[in-house]
């Protein structure tokens, strides 16, 4: 059986609470702001449910129609689905799932751009990330005040911590670019090249 995608895990998690039809799954993901975790739309949810049903991880309970709305099929989690969900969830928490954000590629090659271009791009990123941070902090404070336990918000706490760190790093780096503390237009150090030639076995972090 193929590994469960992040969308499939979120779908199974909601069906673990109680049976739902796919559009209700999507609406709940939006309501809980889980769309910040994965890119998801109604079509992706319907596709995920169809695949889960094909693999025997969910099963249809019945189909109903309300007014002029299209027919909606309600699904529930199977025992196989519960087991697959718990295994994959534990893997998400503890195993290595490498991601390769393009921001890191941009930083690696940033020296090929003029300092003011890099500075403006980082400021643009900083403003967007600071806005996301403020929104998350506000939502976190609101639902905690409403009585939602912290154990249901660990993902939000992690994202807040990550965003705080990134905004702080961006602030520091932009200030260094403004002060030219990075020596952006300085020539590449000849001493580094000489040292590298004397040591044939390059380290993984050398460029």
Summarize the structure.
The protein has eight helices and two strands, in the order αααββααααα. The protein has a two-stranded antiparallel sheet with strand order 1-2. Helix content is 59%, strand content 6%.
Number of domains: 2
User: What do the pLDDT scores average to?
Assistant: 91
Low-confidence stretches: none
Biggest beta sheet summary: 2 strands, antiparallel
Question: In words, what does this structure look like?
Answer:
Strands 1-2 form a two-stranded antiparallel ribbon. It contains 8 helices and 2 strands. It is elongated. The protein folds into 2 domains: 6-94, Winged helix-like DNA-binding domain superfamily/Winged helix DNA-binding domain (Arc Repressor Mutant, subunit A, Orthogonal Bundle), CATH 1.10.10; 102-198. The two termini are 40 Å apart. With 207 residues, it is mostly helical. Helices cover 59% and strands 6% of the residues. Residues 11-86 form the Transcription regulator PadR N-terminal domain. Residues 119-146 form a coiled coil.
What does the secondary structure layout of this molecule look like, with pairings?
Blueprint: H1 6-17, H2 22-31, H3 42-54, E1 58-64, E2 72-77, H4 79-94, H5 102-108, H6 115-145, H7 154-178, H8 190-198
Antiparallel strand pairs: 1-2
